[in-house]
Amino acid sequence: MLRIGLVLLILPSIALMVVFYMDQSAVNACLELGGSYNYDLAECDLEQKHPFKPLMARHPMLINGTMLLSVVGLFMCMKGLLWRPR
């Protein structure tokens, strides 16, 4: 129970950080070129400006799902640490 809980606690958080930093690096690369990042199409546009749209608004199921898995992992860790079989 404890090992599964630790996996569910850590892996979704790492996956979410990887997705966030990949998205952020694409935005930074576009801004360095002098363009505007189109968040809906995930591409750089050099001609017109686009409003900022956070990752949570673009991928709510990904964010909420990974956070839910982390909370489930936390509860499994707590159960594994507090209620050990005798």
Automatic annotation (TrEMBL):
<feature type="transmembrane region" description="Helical">
    <location>
        <begin position="61"/>
        <end position="82"/>
    </location>
</feature>
<protein>
    <submittedName>
        <fullName>Uncharacterized protein</fullName>
    </submittedName>
</protein>
<keyword id="KW-1133">Transmembrane helix</keyword>
<keyword id="KW-0472">Membrane</keyword>
<keyword id="KW-0812">Transmembrane</keyword>
